[in-house]
Specification:
It comes from Triticum aestivum. This is C3H1-type domain-containing protein. GO terms for molecular function: DNA binding; zinc ion binding. Keywords: DNA-binding, Metal-binding, Repeat, WD repeat, Zinc, Zinc-finger. This protein is mainly beta. It has a domain of 175 residues: 7 Propeller (Methylamine Dehydrogenase, Chain H), CATH 2.130.10. The protein is built from two helices and 26 strands. Strand 17 and strand 18 form a beta hairpin. The longest helix is centred in the N-terminal third of the chain and has 5 residues.
């Protein structure tokens, strides 16, 4: 995410007035800093007040500055355009001034709600962005279309050029990452609730079972024991964990003797379905429809803490650095940190307009996304 020279977020025009306009009469106002500039919304050009906290730096010209009436103007290259009538492009490729022949308008900072619902009639002419992600560091390569119902899981095995996707249409599709073409369709006999990969193994959660494929040997097996839909899967301490609809978390351990996954434990405590799992260190964290998060010790498989700050279903969990992050249908993101006693407590709560259901992480940058009911998978590439 880009920052302006004054420390504010990008996509705002900044007039860096370092001195009075040539020929302008000196006045007491020319030695004052513009309060509107400090707030990031000054639209006067030239402005009679200073647009700088350091007027003595006027002799230094930044690489991105150009001469203009009343001094120099610096602007973020991603913000598009400068003064009135200037060219440039915003992140949708339209010139906010000059290029569109009008005064620049504020760019909407949230996606179109009709697009999110799948029924926007304006298309590319819509003033709100039609995008899942508001970051400039990710670009869409291609939508992978083929599933007939909601996509509920994706897996990209390490070192593989194939992407796996699972859907409520009861199939797992294999995609070629180079061409974006579907390379195979596998019926699994039930709605896919989740999917993960680990080494040569692909795990798929379906009603009353976990399907397992060895992608190298093509071996296939069914892990029975779950009751109802399997909503989440996780791996930690050489155990496979499955979150089930009846509130249990089942665990299996791979046996090299039998070359199979054998039942290892059943973790109980949640009152309703478990819908999210994440492993961090020697802890397993589970989020449930009962509005709680439980912390499990992977060495003893015992629950050591129950977190009850959310007021709705805890849809997704993420371990990042020394923090646990959770998002919920109560429209909040909560950041948890350990106290001196070792227990987790909320250190920050962020309120969102949309209901949050899933997380993704790459290169230590956190992106939260709203899971949309669209039968497609979008592949993205970080620049």
């Amino acid at each position: 995410m880009d920052f302006e020279a004054d420390g504010r977020f990008g996509n705002k025009r900044v007039h860096n007035r370092l001195g009075p306009a040539p020929g302008a009469a000196s006045s007491s106002s020319s030695t004052k800093v513009c309060i509107h500039w400090r707030a990031g919304r000054c639209n006067r050009f030239p402005c009679p007040f200073l647009h700088s906290e350091l007027p003595e730096a006027a002799t230094t010209k930044r690489p991105n500055q150009r001469d203009g009436p009343g001094g120099h103007v610096w602007r973020n290259p991603n913000s598009g355009g400068g003064g009135r009538g200037g060219g440039g492009f915003n992140k949708w490729g339209r010139g906010p001034g000059g290029a569109d022949g009008g005064v620049r308008h504020k760019v909407p900072d949230r996606p179109c709600k009709f697009f999110l619902a799948g029924d926007c009639t304006y298309g590319e002419k819509c003033r709100y962005p039609h995008t899942y992600c508001m970051s400039n560091s990710i670009t869409l390569l291609t939508p992978l279309q083929g599933h007939e119902k909601v996509v509920t899981g994706i897996a990209l095995p390490t070192g593989s050029d194939k992407l796996y996707s699972g859907s409520k249409d009861g199939t797992v599709r294999l995609w070629d990452c180079q061409t974006g073409q579907c390379a195979g369709v596998l019926p699994v006999g039930g709605e896919v609730g989740c999917m993960i990969s680990e080494g040569p193994w692909l795990f798929v959660g379906i009603p009353d079972a976990v399907k397992v494929w060895n992608m190298q040997t093509q071996a296939e097996m069914n892990l029975t024991g779950p009751t109802g839909q399997v909503y989440a899967l996780a791996i930690g301490n050489e155990l496979l964990f499955a979150a089930t609809q009846d509130g249990r978390i089942l665990a299996w351990r791979f046996s090299t003797v039998t070359n199979c996954f054998e039942p290892a434990a059943s973790l109980t405590g949640h009152q309703l379905a478990v819908v999210s799992l994440i492993v961090g260190g020697m802890r397993l964290y589970s989020g449930s429809m009962d509005k709680t998060i439980r912390v499990w010790d992977l060495a003893t498989l015992q629950c050591i803490q129950t977190l009850s700050d959310h007021t709705n279903v805890v849809m997704s969990l993420l371990c990042w650095d020394q923090f646990l992050l959770s998002c919920s249908l109560d429209q909040t993101i909560k950041v948890w940190a350990a106290t001196e006693s070792g227990n987790l407590e909320v250190t920050y709560t962020h309120k969102e307009e949309n209901k949050l259901t899933c997380w993704a992480v790459k290169h230590e940058q956190i992106w939260h996304t709203v899971w949309l009911g669209k039968a497609e998978v979008a592949t993205s590439h970080g620049k």
